[in-house]
Design brief:
The strands form 2 sheets. A 5-stranded mixed sheet has the order 1-7-6-4-5, with helices on one face. A two-stranded antiparallel ribbon has the order 2-3. It has one domain (29-145): Glutaredoxin. The chain contains 5 helices and 7 strands, in the order αβαβββαβαββα. The chain has 148 residues and is α+β, with helices and mostly antiparallel strands. The chain is 38% helix and 22% strand.
Length: 148
């Protein structure tokens, strides 16, 4: 018995889609080490805290969140990261809205929001978390930097 080529193609496409979905679900919200050694330029990000532009990083670490206006999960992640900032001396939290700044999204390869970068005191990207951070991930990444 021969399989219909269209049916076979559909089954292969379905299998590939399922595999991609499982991989995305598994990898979302986990910390991923970054080895680019890129240092963030705050003047290019134009991040404000209150009414003034941020010019320095946290003394121990900085949590940099990329979000968009239409991101449903971003406000919850923002509250979570603001709590870390309040509870941890030397930690700074920054939020960058990339809704109208596609150049930043492309430069940092942000394909989903929220995306959180964990930066060292010099502003070097040490790790990234795409999606909602899983429980304990932020603490784990901060411990690796010695910020906790």
């Amino acid at each position: 018995m021969e399989l219909n080529p269209a049916l076979l193609s559909g089954l292969i496409l379905l299998a590939l889609s399922l595999a991609a979905g499982v991989w995305l679900k598994f990898s979302a919200g986990r910390g991923k080490r970054v080895s680019t050694h890129e240092i963030i330029d705050l003047s290019k990000l134009k991040v404000k805290k209150g009414k003034s532009q941020v010019k320095t990083f946290g003394k121990k670490a900085t949590l940099l969140q990329f979000s968009t206006e239409y991101c449903g999960q971003c406000p919850g992640v923002r509250r979570q990261l603001l709590e870390f900032e309040e509870q941890t001396a030397g930690l700074l939290y920054l939020d960058v809205d990339i809704t109208d700044r596609l150049n930043l999204a492309a430069h940092f390869s942000v394909s989903q929001t929220p995306t959180v970068f964990v930066l060292d005191p010099k502003g070097e990207i040490k790790s990234r978390i795409s999606g909602i951070p899983r429980p304990g991930v932020i603490q784990s990444e901060l411990k690796k930097l010695g910020a906790l």
